[in-house]
């Protein structure tokens, strides 16, 4: 009897487990059905997900509201507010922060006419809060000079997928390490590619939303991926990157995986995560654009520290000069060199126009800050005279090696150019003026047939003219800005006129000497 009761209890328990499992599955199925429910045929109302940047400057927050009808532009949406004291963006006694809708995208999670809304945040008085970096970027991109240059951005967002609870890269043995880097970049296979389903889901979600995503690939470190957005014009680049990041956060949330934008998630011989930013202006894309690119690179070198301070927290752990990065302390640029601060492609060099790639931004950078700063530095900002003189010593290392010995020995600076230009202009002006005066004296002596004074004037004139010629010859090959700057063009034109006139006067003196000798 006891055995029979025991068997009955086991059977009953098994039935309850099956029923519970069926109930759970049924509940899950019903929830999924509701999540996938398209309400468009039943109501004109839509759901708008308002998205903004939180107090850390990198976290994303969002909340939903019902809008009475579909909209096409962000300007049709109402402002909203949130509790800034709960996001670290306002004190508790005055916690209201106002959301201004700025850009809308289709919602790939809810479908239909539902939308995602990228917002920036303001105080009730209408002042942008400290974490609102979009406001300043929008001002930069609305400047007439910037508008006329039509700045394009292509942003390469790298990210790392982590296992939940242990904060260790996806596909890595917990507490251990996979094989060394090499087979993972753009690799395929269960032992090389970890998280492809997330990357592909994100790719499709971005396309559905209307984000200008242009590609994706597995990265050098296993568990690390990249997607590219662009080319995008102006402020649009920041809006699209932030929305793409939000979609990635939501997808990893559903997949039970943690998204990390840490620029160096794993210490040691492993690649960090960056956000390389490809950039061009209309002038760079047109004929002669390579000279404009070099001028932009000069400006970027002069503001290197300012850019680095704005390019992402913890970037010093990534920019070490190793793993396809430049040193954080030293600005550099090169053609096809991924170990430089700024890389220029071979095609750009060959065609004489194109774009540059800023490889310094970290994966956690604010795209509004980076894109705005690039446009400001290369289009609006004019370097001070002192800054240009200082930068003359920090030019491209390949060109530094070609400096002539006199240019290295005499660190003479001139406010309109680099060291070589200053060497040329100062030396030439001094020699030219002295030689020109002595030449005039010599001509006067020729007229008066004063042979002793004539020979002295001729010797002085010839010496100074030769010094002028020497200065021009030594520095000529080192001038790479001479005909791109109006001030330099004016000065060099004056030098040519002075030198030419002096040469004519010297010839006249020598003609006079011959006449005196014959006489």
Keywords:
five-stranded mixed β-sheet; ATP binding; transit peptide; alpha+beta; 14 strands; nine-stranded mixed β-sheet; 519 residues; Gln_synt_N_sf; 16 helices; single chain
List the total number of helices: 16
SS content category: alpha+beta
**How many whole angstroms does the radius of gyration measure?**
34 Å
Query: What is the chain-wise order of helices and strands?
Result: HEEEEEHHEEHEEHEEHHHEEHEHHHHHHH
Taking the alpha carbons of the first and last residues, their distance comes to: 153 Å
Helix content: 40-55%
Sequence stretches where pLDDT stays below 50 over 5 or more residues: 396-420, 477-485
- Largest sheet properties: 9 strands, mixed
In short:
By secondary structure, the chain is of the alpha+beta class.
Structural notes for this entry:
It catalyses: L-glutamate + NH4(+) + ATP = L-glutamine + ADP + phosphate + H(+). It is an enzyme of class 6 (ligase). This is Glutamine synthetase. Residues 46-126 form the GS beta-grasp domain. It comes from Anisodus acutangulus. With 519 residues, this protein is an alpha+beta fold. 45% of the residues lie in helices and 17% in strands. The chain has 16 helices and 14 strands. It has helices spanning 2-35, 134-141, 144-149, 196-209, 236-255, 282-285, 289-302, 304-309, 346-351, 367-380, 385-391, 397-400, 405-409, 419-448, 451-476, 486-518; strands at 46-53, 60-67, 80-83, 96-106, 115-122, 152-163, 168-169, 213-218, 224-233, 258-260, 275-280, 333-335, 342-344, 356-358. Strands 6, 7, 8, 9, 10, 11, 12, 13 and 14 form a nine-stranded mixed sheet that branches. A hairpin with an 8-residue loop joins β4 (96-106) and β5. It is elongated. The termini are far apart. Residues 396-420 and 477-485 have low confidence and may be disordered.
């Amino acid at each position: 009897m006891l055995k029979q009761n025991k068997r009955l209890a086991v059977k009953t328990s098994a039935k309850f487990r099956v029923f519970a499992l069926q109930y759970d599955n049924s509940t899950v199925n019903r929830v999924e059905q509701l999540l996938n429910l398209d309400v468009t045929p039943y109501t004109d109302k839509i759901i708008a997900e308002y998205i903004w940047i939180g107090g850390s400057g990198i976290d994303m927050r969002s909340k939903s509201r019902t809008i009475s009808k579909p909209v096409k532009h962000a300007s049709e949406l109402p402002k909203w507010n949130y509790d800034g004291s709960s996001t670290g963006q306002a004190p508790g006694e005055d916690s209201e922060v106002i959301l201004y809708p700025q850009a809308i995208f289709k919602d790939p999670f809810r479908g239909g006419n539902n939308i995602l809304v990228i917002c920036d945040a303001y105080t009730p008085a209408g002042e942008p809060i400290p974490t609102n970096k979009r406001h300043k970027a929008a001002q930069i991109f609305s400047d007439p000079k910037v508008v006329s240059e039509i700045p394009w951005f292509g942003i390469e967002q790298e990210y790392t997928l982590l296992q939940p609870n242990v904060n260790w890269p996806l596909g890595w043995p917990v507490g251990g390490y996979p094989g060394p880097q090499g087979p993972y970049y753009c690799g395929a296979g269960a032992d090389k590619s970890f998280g492809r389903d997330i990357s592909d889901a994100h790719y499709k979600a971005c396309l559905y939303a209307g984000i200008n995503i242009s590609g994706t690939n597995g990265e050098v470190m296993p568990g690390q991926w990249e997607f590219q957005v662009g080319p995008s014009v102006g402020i649009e680049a920041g809006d699209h990157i932030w929305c793409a990041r939000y979609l990635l956060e939501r997808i990893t949330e559903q997949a039970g995986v943690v998204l990390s934008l840490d620029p160096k998630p794993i210490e040691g011989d492993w690649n960090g995560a960056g956000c390389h930013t490809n950039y061009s202006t209309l002038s760079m894309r047109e004929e002669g654009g390579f000279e404009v690119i070099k001028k932009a690179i000069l400006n970027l070198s002069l503001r290197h520290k300012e850019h680095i301070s704005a390019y992402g927290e913890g970037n010093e752990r990534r920019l070490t000069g190793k793993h396809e990065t430049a040193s954080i302390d030293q600005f550099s640029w090169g053609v096809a060199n991924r170990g430089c601060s700024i890389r220029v492609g071979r095609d750009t060099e060959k065609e004489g126009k194109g774009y540059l790639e800023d490889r310094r931004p970290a994966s956690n950078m604010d795209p509004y800050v980076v894109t705005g700063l690039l446009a400001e530095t290369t289009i609006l900002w004019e370097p001070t005279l002192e800054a240009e003189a200082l930068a003359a010593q920090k030019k491209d290392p390949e060109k530094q090696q070609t400096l002539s010995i006199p240019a290295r020995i005499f660190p003479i600076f001139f406010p309109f150019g680099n060291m070589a230009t200053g060497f040329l202009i100062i030396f030439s002006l001094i020699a030219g003026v002295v030689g020109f005066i002595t030449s005039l004296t010599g001509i006067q002596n020729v007229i008066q047939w004063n042979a002793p004074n004539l020979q002295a004037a001729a010797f002085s004139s010839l010496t100074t003219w030769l010094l002028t010629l020497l200065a021009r010859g030594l520095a000529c090959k080192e001038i790479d800005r001479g005909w791109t700057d109006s001030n330099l063009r004016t000065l060099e034109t004056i030098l040519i006129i002075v030198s030419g006139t002096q040469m004519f006067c010297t010839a006249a003196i020598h003609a006079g000497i011959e006449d005196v000798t014959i006489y």
